[in-house]
Amino acid sequence: MTTLRQFKCEDLFKFNKVNLDPLTEMYGLSFYLSYLAHWPEYFQVAESPSGQVMGYIMGKAEGHVQNEQWHGHVTCLTIDPEYRRLGLARNLMKGLEDISEDKNCFFVDLFVRVSNEVAVNMYKQLGYVIYRTVLEYYSGDPDEDAYDMRKALTRDVDNKSVIPLKHPVRPEDVD
Q1: Element of type H or E holding 36
Q2: What's the whole-model pTM score?
Q3: Is the N or the C terminus of the chain less surrounded, counting Cβ atoms within 10 Å?
Q4: Domains in the chain, please, with CATH?
Q5: What gap in Å lies between CA 163 and CA 129, rounded to an integer?
Q6: Mean pLDDT lowest for which of 10-19, 64-73, 142-151?
Q7: Is residue 133 within 8 Å of 145, Cβ to Cβ?
Q8: Residue 37: which pLDDT band, with cuts at 50, 70 and 90?
């Protein structure tokens, strides 16, 4: 039975295998610890019965609480290739969405490589739409664009947050 639980500091020693996926963005130790300190509720792990990290999601709430830009953000979602197609990503996303609902966010957003068709299709199945394309988003690969995908939450009764932009933007234009 898989356990979904809050990420703990000691998980940093157990999640390297998950991060070996070439589509997973890797960060420095201080980055992970910063998220764990500031948004612990948004940092969740899927753990096997033997204690192996099967995948994790890392996110945050950002924007201004008082306006329509207040939202949950998925910084990273990755599943060990050995455990894919079991619904773990869907369950981790649902947890992040629920946390964002509890924080009264208007929407949840994430960035995904345009070339990662499997992930793009999964997010579409979860109700996300392509809000805009961000040109040359990935610093390690300047030819790789990203989709900014969004899903409206119940606070956005008119779904204004997911009305797609007509033109692509540059990374410096992303707020």
Answers
A1: helix 29-38
A2: 0.92
A3: N
A4: 3-173 (3.40.630.30)
A5: 9
A6: 10-19
A7: yes
A8: very high
